[in-house]
Amino acid sequence: MLWCADAAAFRPVWQSEIEVETHRNGVRLRVKQGDDAKGATAALDRTLALMNAAFPDARLDSQLWVPLVPAMTNHLKDRHILAAAVRAGASHVVTFNMKDFPVCSRPAGVTVLRPDVFPMYLLATNKAGIVEAVVKMAAQRSRPAQTPTELAEWIANGICAPRFGKALATVLAS
Fold first, then answer.
1. Pick from 117, 1, 16, 122: which is nearest to 60 by CA?
2. Residues in a beta bridge with 92
3. DSSP state of 11
4. Which of 23, 82, 114, 126 is deepest in the core (most CB within 10 A)?
5. Which helix (H) or strand (E) holds 92?
6. For residue 54, how many other CB atoms are within 10 A of its CB?
7. 157, exposed or middle or buried, with CB in 10 Å at 0-12, 13-18, 19+?
8. What is the pTM of this model?
9. pLDDT tens digits, residue range 92-110?
10. In whole angstroms, what is the distance from residue 46 CA to residue 26 CA?
11. pLDDT tens across 45-88, in order?
């Protein structure tokens, strides 16, 4: 998805607690997929460092979002996410954890989508930009090298956005 952000399809926003959760869950997932804990930790450290380097304005200072946490009404442990979204003026929160963001708890103008649905929305609203992002991403991949279609198939066979990968492959084939 960050390739899509790089192509200006959306503006990513995160904060320190989201980074901690991303790191913890990413390490856990990589270990579950067969990586050793040390390698998984190093990979997530590198990923987060690259994210912050590529999008230096994406990370919200805690002084901006922490004061909003008490006003959020979603699940207590995830109120920091909606607080950051509100402070940033974000239109979407992307998460697998839909149950902690019931519709009645969402601030006006904030939609909560699964990681497979959000890129489908981006593809529907900015097909040329998303295709451009995928072409650029494929051109950067070298281990293994992949065409945009192969990259779409790789996404389709993954766990995060298989429907998006299939839709992308269809768009690329047309």
1. 16
2. 111
3. -
4. 82
5. strand 92-94
6. 13
7. exposed
8. 0.86
9. 999 999 999 999 999 999 9
10. 12
11. 999 999 999 999 999 999 999 999 999 999 999 999 999 999 99
